[in-house]
Amino acid sequence: MTVDLEELVCALNKELDTISYVIGHDFQQPLRTIKNLSEMILEKDADLDTLRTVIRAADWMHELIQSLLDFRKLSINNPKEVNTHEVLELVLNNLNFKIKEENAGIIIHSTLPVVFIDEFHLYSLFQNLVENALKYRREAALLIEISCVARQDDYFFTIEDNGLGIEKGNQEKIFGIFKRFCSIENGTGIGLAECKRIIDSINGSIWVESVLGVGSEFNFTIPYKK
Amino acid sequence: MRVLLIEDNLSDIRLIERGLGRQVKLTVSQDGKNITSFDYDLIILDLNLPYRSGFEILEDIRTVCKCVPIVVFTTSSNKRDIENCCKYKANAYLIKPYGYAKFMESVKYIYRFWVKNAIM
């Protein structure tokens, strides 16, 4: 990268930080006002159902803004040796309530390796993929299987579920920001874009193989440390 | 008990007023300008204010008054903001939570820790 280009990237990053800061503060303030005062009114008169809809809309906007800020946070990258098994355990602990609620079976098929990546990035990656599997499920008992194979140049991870599956035409598009192709569950449309950004930043690959009504297999690779 | 609240958001002012209750004589400044004295038992300070930032106001207060307790009550969880408030010797830094119940809980905490303890 030439010096000019580096300076430009630095300037753009600073600008993005400023925008994030403004979104984090100035955009949240009116939302907080809507939420707080609506809940205060609801405390006096619990029958105001329309107000609950207002609160839900505010909550939804709040979540979208938070996700957008988290997406921005991914630009911080401090790779180190990270034990995948430990990170996955943390994620599963965090999702424990949802896993129990969905009565989902989780199988880890192989010993998971130590990889070279930013720990928060790896956490976000597993969190998004496992959470999606829990969200987009069918009526049938949900099973999520996680495995990893060491290949010549990288580790090849798979997270497989027997959930709703994704139409062939949408399988590439789902990694774009704010892309949602299912109305069953609330989703911000940022999670998979986060995953793609993380994997792109380490020169790995991420893709999905899926059959609608049968399930999905999310695959990603993490290259070895050079 | 006299409390100075420097806060520009009307809904937050209303909730803080409600949370602190009638025992507190609350003076509100929405921009931090025209404050002639910092002779209060407690100052609650927002950071994101029109005209001047909360940091500038914090610095001003500490220049003339080292001992009045200052609780920064803000939406910012930014590390630099927290460090700046420590630098200018704020006594506490509380992040305004999202949602009425949690917000009121924080105000009650300010009341219990900084007002009630001072009265007792």
Would you give an account of this structure?
- The complex is a heterodimer of chains A (226) and B (120).
- Chain A is α+β, with helices and mostly antiparallel strands.
- Helices cover 50% and strands 19% of the residues of chain A.
- Chain A has six helices and seven strands, in the order ααβααββαββαββ.
- In chain A, the strands form two sheets. A five-stranded mixed β-sheet of chain A has the order 2-4-5-7-6.
- In chain A, a hairpin with a 3-residue loop joins strand 6 and strand 7.
- The longest helix of chain A is centred in the N-terminal third of the chain and has 42 residues.
- The two termini of chain A are 20 Å apart.
- Chain B is α/β, with parallel strands linked by helices and 120 residues long.
- In chain B, helix 1 packs across helix 4.
- Chain B has a five-stranded parallel β-sheet with strand order 2-1-3-4-5, with helices on both faces.
- Chain B is globular, with a radius of gyration of 13 Å.
- Chain B has four helices and five strands, in the order E-H-E-E-H-E-H-E-H.
- Helix content of chain B is 42%, strand content 19%.
- Classes of the chains: A alpha+beta (226), B alpha/beta (120).
- Chains A and B meet through helix 1 of A and helix 1 and helix 4 of B.
